[in-house]
What does this fold into?
Amino acid sequence: MGKFSRLGNELYNGRRSIDFVHKRPLWYSISGGIVLAALLVVIFNGFNFGVEFTGGTEVRVSGLTSSQATQSTADDLRQAIVDAGIPGAEEPTVNTSGDSGMSIQTEDLTQANDQRLVDVITSVVDVADPAKQISPSDIGASWGRQVAQRAIVGVCVFLVLVMFFIGLYFREWKMSVAAFAALFHDIVITMGVYSLSGFSVTPSAVTGLLAILGFSLYDTVVVFDKVRENTHNLRESRTTYAAAANLAVNQTLARSINTGIVALIPIGAILYVSAVQLGASSLKDLALSQFVGMAAGVFSSVWVAPRILVHLKSNESDVKMAEKREKARARAEADRYASVPTFREDMPVVETPRELDLDDLDDDQVELEVEHAERRRASDTTATRLGQGRVAPPARGPVRESGASGRQQPTRQPRSQRGKKP
Amino acid sequence: MARKTRKPGRTLGVFFLALAIAYGLVAVGASWKPELGLDLQGGTRITLVAEGSPSRDALNEAKSIIDQRVNGSGVTEAEVTTQGNNLIVVEIPGKNRADLVETVQRTAQLRFRLVACTESAACGAAAASTTTPTAPTAPGVAPRAPVGFGKADTTPSPTATPTGAGTPTDTATDGTTPSTSPTATGTAKPDTKSSSFDAAVDFMNNPPADWAQKFNDYTCPTNAAPIDDDPAQPLVSCSPEGEKYLMSPAIIEGRDITDASYGIPQNDVQYAVMLDFNGHGRSIFADATGTIAGTGQLFAIVMDGQVISAATASSRIATGAQITGNFTQEQAKSLSTSLKFGSLPVKFKKDTSSEVVGPTLAGDQLSAGLWAGAFGLILVMIYCLLYYRGLGIVVLSSLSFAAAWTYALVLLLSKTAGFTLTLPGIAGLIIAVGITADSFIIFFERIRDEMREGKSMRVAVETGWVRAKRTRIAASFVSLLSAAILYIFATGVVKGFGFALGLSTLIDLAVLFWFTKPLVSWFARFRFFNGGGKLSGLSPETLGTDMPVAVGGKA
It folds into this structure.
């Protein structure tokens, strides 16, 4: 814990930093590759839609004795059908109906499999006359086209609203775009993994996927809020957008990891129990889509969204200027005395201010020239005041928050004043 | 420092009081066990058998209308499926929901017709002469055209094995599919509209002799059987009181109704159902009321062949209509729901079967899922205690109180709004654990960040809170938005999931603002937490800094 905490502190103050925003070609191709692979899986592997979407067969068993038409018999029957492994009936829904009946819902069955199912049923419950008491019938999809249409409309409305909300809240539409790219990443990966798992698509799975919409955006908003806070005033904080954004992601990293762990543990437990121990259960559909989606959501909010945001922002003039200022600062830092002219005999005592020809210079040079001119002017005034008392050094930048939290700070009094009441 | 944040005790007190009140309400009004959904508890299965052989499209349309009717209000998460060629199966959570059979199977074909003859205004004479029948008593007319009479049973219960040869049955061949039949008001084209309306007015003033004869021969039936109601034909039918009417072809049809609601109008004591028309319906209704205004003639509202209301108007009414009668709240609600979501294109046989069905999810699955969730929660708690040490207590208590609130609200909502807890709903609540815990994590990480800058805990709590609060509200808004959209647009289980998600997000915000924050502020007064001790979770070591934590007098 101690090491982790120390890492947390170093991530916070920027002494140690993981690069979340650069190396775009590398990480774009990795993320893009994963998304593409997931897309290919979805396209070629497809989904195994459940009874709710495709319709199927319902087999009704009637005329059972009341001791047989119980929940425990229904559970036994379900297990027996699962164990029989009839194609199309791997995940049956079995429930009691009325006092003397049982109904079994499966996907569409072929004639032969129908017979196998009937055999399984008769082996579990006592049926005197299978032809009369067991009656299969086709059932339609409870999640037909209309439900799907409504859901799609809902999702579209949601996406548009959230896009506007993020754009308005952060005053930055590029954050919406980055958040949506991350969302797309999460959804596609979730769908790909789901398709690979071969679980059938049930309403539970769709629910899980829809919940990911909210969670992915939620997580990105939390990270972006910190990014916005750090990049709020680039000029004042004397840093570049990329550096500030990267610091923000590093500062929220501890939170992202913690949230990921806390959110994934319960779902992981459910996923393990339902998929590994229970086998056929609609619980595992939900748990799988949730687990994959949440993991992808946490990952993309740290790894994908900030990188795209910085990429999108990199063309803005403010950001470019900050970038150039940073470069200039680095250059100045490398050789502090580069601007001091070497002495020549005929050197003028005071340098005449050169006329700046703005048209000839690009932004970079203008910036540098202005900075130099300011520095010269400052040194001029210093020179004229030399010998007239104490000279305050020129300010290196705007005054920053002191970290004193507004408390009064002790001041150093002249020796003659110490110990006396003011 | 803001003064109000210095009184954490009061906020905590109010929080506990509210929780106590919530549980008090539960103890008074609701049961201690939440209503479980179809998959967990089972419910009632209603099987509707269509008459004749409807097309697949008609059956699917009927399915979706029934779906809207049963799921339209509330979060009961009923399931509707078609089965075979002529069956619609509705499964509703709860053991004793056979009362919903009415709502489900009512075809709800509502039509407005002009009344040519009633028993009190003999129409043999009217048929012979063109004089306007001096017509019976009629209720007063309010701006919304209340139309009413004694008792209007909302069920299409009466009606008739038709007696006599002259019953309308022989005329109605395609009455079940009003969308295809050339109705009086079927098209929006102004010329046909006016001509069919004129024909209806003409019929009202001069009922043909053969229809007058049918009317005279007709006696109100006493047993229940559906009446065939062809909108293009005149109709002889009765009100539940047994008064018979001869009516013109339909002038306004159910699909001209854009909205239906129910409530108790001002200056009234009984429930009424309010109707709003689309442009077409409104103009016809205005014309109709304008035509009969002052003459004492009547128009009738016919529902599934039965006259549920007949009234006159004193002036031209260009707004909506209002159906009054001896409705109970349930009846008014059922009627308005049926009208709002449209009429069924399919008629169903009278004998519907309803039976109790068991849960579709095995009992061991639910308990296994719950155990897994509980196990996961315990792991989360252990992790929080290890990571945040003393502050972990805050996480534990906040999660417990969030759980307590959730349980109370689920109980209350299953009582008042018919909320049922399904498996996805439970999963939504478990997922919310992650989001709820995240709000504490954001807050604590902020506090730690502030302390890394050298602030004392007391200061860090307040400054960290300001920033964490903003992040939290923005993020929760996104969650709430997704929950609301899921709730509005989705059906069935997804609706329940959206509801659970929204509920838990709101609870999370409430617990964060009114419990966690005051609790941390209060803890910050104690040496144990603000002293930078090892167990506080805020020691220099856990913060990862080398400088000592600022403590003491004014810190």
Observations:
- The two ends of chain B are 12 Å apart (CA to CA).
- Chain B has a mean pLDDT of 71.
